[in-house]
Amino acid sequence: MAKKIVLSCSKCASRNYTVPARSEPGTRLELNKFCAHCNGHTVHKQTI
């Protein structure tokens, strides 16, 4: 079973997205995604 990474909004801290895990365990993923709570595109960071 593939592991998943949870992404949370950097502004409101809501957890909006899940993505498949990559092979680089030392780095944290940051993507620019749409947040429905903030109603705009914000940086989403990988949670623990």
Automatic annotation (TrEMBL):
SUPFAM superfamilies, A to Z: Zn-binding ribosomal proteins (SSF57829)
Highest taxon above the source species: Bacteria
Keyword Secreted in annotation: no
Pfam families associated with the record: Ribosomal_L33
Annotated Gene Ontology cellular component terms: ribosome
UniProt xrefs under InterPro entries: Ribosomal_bL33, Ribosomal_bL33_sf, Ribosomal_zn-bd
UniProt keyword list: Ribonucleoprotein, Ribosomal protein
Family: Belongs to the bacterial ribosomal protein bL33 family.
Protein name (Swiss-Prot/TrEMBL): Large ribosomal subunit protein bL33
Organism name: Planococcus chinensis
Gene from which the chain derives: rpmG
